[in-house]
Amino acid sequence: xxxxxxxxxxxxxxxxxxxxxxxxxxxxxxxxxxxxxxxxxxxxxxxxxxxxxxxxxxxxxxxxxxxxxxxxxxxxxxxxxxxxxxxxxxxxxxxxxxxxxxxxxxxxxxxxxxxxxxxxxxxxxxxxxxxxxxxxxxxxxxxxxxxxxxxxxxxxxxxxxxxxxxxxxxxxxxxxxxxxxxxxxxxxxxxxxxxxxxxxxxxxxxxxxxxxxxxxxxxxxxxxxxxxxxxxxxxxxxxxxxxxxxxxxxxxxxxxxxxxxxxxxxxxxxxxxxxxxxxxxxxxxxxxxxxxxxxxxxxxx
Length: 301
Description:
Elements: E1 2-5, H1 13-21, E2 30-32, E3 35-40, E4 47-53, E5 62-67, H2 75-86, H3 93-99, H4 103-111, H5 123-133, H6 138-152, E6 155-156, E7 159-160, H7 173-179, H8 183-197, H9 211-219, H10 226-235, H11 248-258, H12 266-273, H13 280-294
């Protein structure tokens, strides 16, 4: 099945997919120019999407091939899913207008025009991703998540979806420990999966509450601190007013972009990013791409 999607302009699939993938160790979100691929299994049956951009940034058009059993997921639902994950319908005109009058942000906005703030498909995935990456390098965290997906995610032609809570129902802490997760992380992930499967924890309901309440509710969960709560608010709930101020990598990127003498701490980072208000989380994604570009991981436009 093939469908066509028309994002609001400007849009660049490459930048958005790379902001979603973050690191080459991510095997769930796959980017091989000019194609973004991912296996989804929201209802347990796996299917793969193959997405390409066939028109320029200012007149974007995407084709999506859906691979899998016929009718496993209706066209409209696939379109809605990708619209959410890739931010296809977002109107960021106010961001670009504000960025034009801000020297450091203007340069980033110009360089990465067409980037959209990507969103992980479920709050559960964002939460597990955040837990996996706690106090580790991004590459190590992504390798842990790749092993988790390979062991428990629904499979389509050798590639795996991210596991749903119920997919982890048979897992034991020692199984995750064997993959490289710490005991604490293993117990946290399986506790969250069990609570979600049994209906004691409704993570998707966080989409309907204000950001402060969502962050507070996340921090009430075992094993979830401020960094992870901010990570989930941004990457799982799409709250662009949230910048993960405790993220050391983001602090380093701020130091580079703003040419600061030293890396800002959490409170200094908060003071710096507050000037970008409702779009400080979008700044976070621009800093991520700047870091990837400095490492030679971005393709020419």
